[in-house]
Structures are given as C-alpha cells and as structure tokens.
Specification:
It contains eleven helices and two strands. A hairpin with a 2-residue loop joins strand 1 and strand 2.
Length: 243
C-alpha cells in the first residue's frame, strides 16, 4: 500500500479516473435530481443520498467482481448476425428505461397539470423512486466500472477514485436539484439530455458506439445557451422592476 502512495503513475491514474468518474456521473446526477423532484420536499435529500450511497456500494461490489464484469462482454447469442452479450442487454434495457422515463416526464411537463404535494406522494412513492434510481445506477455503474478497469491496474486505486467521485456527486446533487427546481425551463433541457443518453446506451448495446465527448459537448453548448436565456430573463426582470 505504501508503494502505491509513492508511485506517481498510480496518482496519475487515480486523478484521471476520478475526473472521468465524475464526468460519467453527470447524467446519473441529473436523473437522480429529476426522479427525486417527484417526492415531497422533505424526502428529496434523503432519496438523493440513498441513491448515490447505493451507487457507491454497487460500484465497489462490481469492482470486486472484475472477472464477472469482463465475462459480461462475452457473446451469449447471435441475432441477425449481431453478437449479443449480457452487457449489451443491460445497456439496451437501461437505455430503453431511460428513454421511457424521460419521455413520460417530458409529456407530463407539456401536457400535465399542476400537482399538489399530496398528489406527488401518490404518483412518486419513496420506495419507487429509490428503485428507479438504483436501476439506472446499475447501468451507469457498469459503464463506469468498465472504464475504471481500462484505466487503473490496482483495485485500491479504482475504489478510491469511485469513492471520491461519488462524494463529489453527493455534494453537487443538492445545488443541481435546487437550480432545476428554481428554473423550470432547465428541467426540460435536462430531460432532453437524458433522452440523448438513453439513445446512446441503446446504440452501444447494438454495437454502434457514440463518443460520449460529442454528447457532453452538446450538453455544454445547450447548457450555455440556456444560461444566456436565464441571464437575459433576469436582466429584463431587473430593468422592469427598476423602471
């Protein structure tokens, strides 16, 4: 263990993996924030903490089962000339679930009415939200763990990077959720991001890889445009108030 702490290459892989884990966790945090928003305000923070804590435990368990994770990529069937593995099935199922959730949320935002707190409890029970968060955590964790295995050589480094990334996500989840709650237009943008991620997961499951860099670049560009719109709206509101 002392040898690892004094090895510059280990620190380089740790920092690289930590940054990648945080970046790969952005879509996870967005989903958790939106899923928890259907709960009463007093339950949202607890749901986010439980969801991310579950993600941490799940990722550590997956890292300790590296041989099994690698085995998930082995083909188990051939469909129309396409070799399908358990990893492909998990990615396709997770992507379809994410597409369904994001689409139904978009429909609710466009066509739905205003819900009271009591109605929110009925439509989004606490256990149901936690189950949805954990289900998507499984898909995102699989992607995250495969990335970790490809970058770091030591299981201790992988686990340390995952722990740091999850702690950063826990800290970031609350302000992200509050920002989305205070600015409703950003929720639609976040849901559109989740549609993109869902499509990318399904495409990966069918061996059509879409570089995550393109998706994140689109997210950053759209987010920057939305920030300009919010800035413009706030500035016009101040001008009206001062007039």
């Amino acid at each position: 263990m002392i040898e690892l702490l004094s090895d510059p290459a280990v620190w380089a892989s740790f920092l690289t993996l930590t940054v990648l884990e945080i970046v790969l966790g952005v879509d996870n945090v967005i989903f958790i924030s939106i899923a928890a928003s259907r709960l009463p305000p007093e339950q949202r923070r607890r749901a986010r903490v439980i969801g991310l804590s579950g993600a941490l435990v799940l990722r550590i368990l997956l890292l300790l089962s590296i041989a099994w994770i690698i085995g998930l990529s082995e083909p188990i069937a051939t469909v129309f000339g396409l070799e399908i593995s358990w990893r492909d099935i998990i990615l396709i199922a997770g992507g379809l679930f994410l597409l369904y959730k994001a689409s139904t949320e978009i429909f609710e935002e466009v066509e739905g009415g205003i819900h009271t707190a009591e109605e929110s409890v009925v439509t989004a029970a606490f256990a149901s939200v936690i189950f949805q968060i954990m289900l998507l955590d499984l898909v995102f964790s699989l992607d995250s763990v495969i990335t970790a295995v490809g970058i770091a050589d030591h299981i201790e480094v992988m686990i340390a990077a995952v722990v740091v990334a999850i702690l950063v996500m826990m800290i970031a989840a609350a302000p992200i959720a509050k920002f989305v709650e205070d600015h409703p237009s950003t929720k639609m943008l976040a849901l559109a991001f989740l549609v993109m991620v869902g499509m990318a997961l399904v495409a990966d499951g069918f061996h059509v890889h879409i570089e995550r860099g393109f998706i994140y670049a689109a997210m950053v560009f759209a987010g920057a445009v939305e920030m300009l719109n919010l800035w413009r709206a706030a500035r016009r509101k101040r001008l009206v108030e001062n007039a």
